[in-house]
Amino acid sequence: MKRLIVGMLLLLPGTLASQERHDEQFYRPGSFNWKFLHEYPDAARLFNAFDYGHAVLYETLWSHPDAPASLLEQERFAYLTQNLLRRPPRFGVVEQAVAPEYARLAWRAMLMFDRAHVLHRQIYDVYSDEKLDDSTRIALVERLTDWYLADSEYALAATPKAMELMDGQAFSQVFRKGYPRFNGLIWAYHWLQVGLYEPLIEGRSPAERKAGVQATVAQFWAMVDSAPSRLPSVMPMTSAVAPAFTARHLRAAIIFDNLHMLHDIISDILVTDQIPRSGKRAAIYAALREFQDGKHNTMELEHWRMMGEHMGVEKMGGRAGVEH
Questions:
Q1: How many domains does the chain have?
Q2: Which domain holds residue 113?
Q3: How far apart, in whole angstroms, are the C-alpha atoms of residue 272 and residue 254?
Q4: Partner of 70 for a Cys bridge, out of 1, 74, 81, 100, CB 3.0 to 4.6 A?
């Protein structure tokens, strides 16, 4: 009986040799929490759909390695763009319920992404709280960024990581080449995630902010409705898409670019046949460690800004809040 119990435990995720601490973390306390959902429910609920889209992508790539590209490029893409995004979940998605096999493979990656997504959402909340003046908002966002970075076990670096990590490795770009429409959709998600900061910062009144958020969401829908022709063809960079946000909150802008690069790298790792299935977890965890390291494989701030300009903001989806 004892051997049977031990054998069963070894098969369970998160136990004994396969154990990883779950370490979930809730929002930092503040009266500003949930203000974005209250003021801009249609935009806020899109992010629940984005969470589902990221989770179903990784689950599909890991659990169905031999599936035809059409499973993501057509079936999953159609469901997301024609159904889920149109009627997004009212509540946050429990990603491990959508992607249980991927969660067992790379739970730490899920935790790190979740920490960064919480930072994203709390910044929206701060800028959606009409009771706060601008200087208070700026200070609060910097404090939230301090708290995020203080969690050194899970925080991504606030130093720009070299683009060669995403584009210069032996397995780089295999996902975007094999799944161009789905990759463009993920980049559209990332465009909106950073782009929404611009109207919240630049709007001079509640009415202007609401109109700006609506216009930015409309830009996103124009990309989706014209897919694939208007989906981003290069990774959106925060300095180009959201320059006002970048000027105010440089560290957060860099963290989000590193987050989005890491998303791409994990997709490539899951797809490539250059890394055996038995080595996928180790490769993902090596990438996580790389993006926590702010001293190696980095680029200067000016080079980071110039790269955003050189790549072309129009190819990224355009400057947020600017009609096309």
A1: 1
A2: 41-316
A3: 27
A4: 74
